Amino acid sequence: MSDVPAVPEVVGLVDAVTRAFADDGPLARALPQFEPRDGQRRMAVAVARAIDEGGVLMAEAGTGTGKTMAYLVPAVLSGRRVLVSTGTKNLQEQIFEKDVPALRGALGLPFTATCMKGRANYLCLHRFEEYRSRQGVRGRHLNSDDAVFLPVIEHWAPKTDTGDRAELAELPEDLALWHEVSATADTCLGSECPRHSECFVTRMRQRAAESDVVIVNHHLLCADAAVRESAYGEVIPSCPQLVVDEAHQLEDVATQYFGRGVSNLRIDDLGRDAEAALRAAVVAPGATAKHDASRGVMRVVDHARAFFSGLALARMSRGDERLRVAREWFADHLQTGLDLAGALDGLQATCALTAAGRDREAPADDAAVSDDLTAVARRAGDMAADLRFLLACADPAYVYFLEVKGRAVQLRAAPIDVSRIVRDLVTGQRRATIITSATLTVEGRFDYIKERLGLEDADVLSVPSEFDYTRQTLLYLPRRMPLPREERYTEAVAWEAGQLLRCSRGRAFVLFTSYASMRAVVQRLEPELEYPVLVQGTAPRSTLLAEFRRTPNAVLFATSSFWQGVDVQGDQLSAVIIDKLPFASPGDPIVAARIDALAAQGASAFEAYQVPLAILALQQGLGRLIRHRNDRGVLAVLDPRIRSMGYGRRFLASLPPAPVTYDMEQVRRFFGEPSE
């Protein structure tokens, strides 16, 4: 590490870690909340051995173990730079703002740390200048959001040290203006950018390269690995040690970032940036080239509109958010797609020619204009190549699908199996890798996660939660429920949830596997509930969580994004109610492709993939309830298949050891409510 002396050889890392976690050690003396935990010590020693000897360690650490300190302490004491990747920005910020300062003081070591987020979190000074220039040309005719928030960003930009939009709490999460002025790998000019030395991403990377602990999230980890060979994309410095926390999310994130895609919004961005670059390239006698390039932009826009609107109309008849496609599906759209690819080729060529002509005509006059045109040409070429790959649907390692969300129409290809990708590009090339989460095992075994991440040779450790689930929790499974496929199931869920919420006096999450089910139950329950009701989709996730924490007796109805990464301690959350076992939809193209791949190998996809995946999801959902040893609450799974089907035993075997009841009267007694 830069300023931290390595652990003396005579002491050894395992001994140093053991001393750090001793009853009278530096952590106990310096941290008021520290308490000896056997599981934490076991994990810390295992991490120290993995760092000493190299290799991969998978460590499942139940909630309350203190796993963050269990991997940070040996990593810091080892004297080698460590890269920590988290599943959520919340944990990322907690480690950087809370755990690192506490550990620095407790160990007395002046180690440094940097928190790195994805590019889109940072203001791009070059794009910001271009945006303001475009508004000046247009007479600053701004829409209402831009008129409000552009002055906010203009006031903040000269003062910020980080350029991180998190400093602007008043900015809406989905502000279109931020997309126009933030950093992206697509638009980055790299070292050719005129603002490269001032660039917030460049400065972030410089800080990280000088730091001992680098904290990222899985999205940045995978995005960086996916573009590591590109001069424009890499931001994470080399680190010999990697810790992947909340590792149960890694497969999904890797699937997203190691695919290929083209969308109407991505092409819209390209068109806007091309127009801006061409407008700036006002040179003579290069006007003809500029005119040709402008016509090239219009050809791209027109062909893109025809192609993506045709795809969207074709998908509407299916009603799926995602539609799996094959080459035959493009019979009516193939030519318009190829026309779009050809138009992108044309835009690439004419922008490149315009840039070259400008260099010859005015080599000393604002080289950034030529760089912008060159960047647009590169992007157009990349999109043309991606589009031809997608239209061919020829690589059996990928599943091809069309996705429509709001205005966005996206054609994508995702890898069916990311195990080799994760092993080679994400966790590979490290001296030591620690894979950890509160939920890694299914029925006490690591087989499923090992196979999905391509880490079959990893050493393993499972440390149970420090919480006393037999005293702190009650698992409620209703005695009589229709099957989820029956029409009366929604009504039964609403009745059971209503009874449970009256027992808990609100203070609950009601979690669903689909928006449709959530809306149907809310419609039935909300009029009769006497507690404040919060519903996912009515406000940003962070706003809903903040409101839930400060509103007495609130009830939050939510879907998948609230099943993990949410931490509410104390009586404010006293019940978690789950409507169905969270099986991934076989109608999802990626899930369907993985089922097909396992079936082709002669394996039972249901037993080997669908059930384990659902078990891990259920563990995460129920894990929202008990976050502290003083918490108490009821876990409720309303799906009768957990009792009636053979695979239900696998779910029950993987849940915390809570007492089970089928009687609502027991729930009332648990909460101290009078019997009815």
Task: Looking at this protein, list some descriptive labels.
676 residues, Rossmann fold, Fumarase C, Chain B, domain 1, 3 domains, seven-stranded parallel β-sheet
Structural features, described:
With 676 residues, the chain is α/β, with parallel strands linked by helices. The chain has three domains: 203 residues, Rossmann fold (3-Layer(aba) Sandwich), CATH 3.40.50; 156 residues, Fumarase C, Chain B, domain 1 (Orthogonal Bundle), CATH 1.10.275; 202 residues, Rossmann fold (3-Layer(aba) Sandwich). Helix content is 48%, strand content 12%. The protein has 26 helices and 18 strands. The strands form three sheets. Strands 3-4-2-5-10-1-11 form a seven-stranded parallel β-sheet, with helices on both faces. A hairpin with a 2-residue loop joins strand 8 and strand 9. Helix 10 runs parallel beside helix 11, helix 12 packs antiparallel against helix 15 and helix 13 packs antiparallel against helix 14. The protein is globular and about 80 Å long. The N and C termini lie far apart (64 Å). The N terminus is likely disordered.
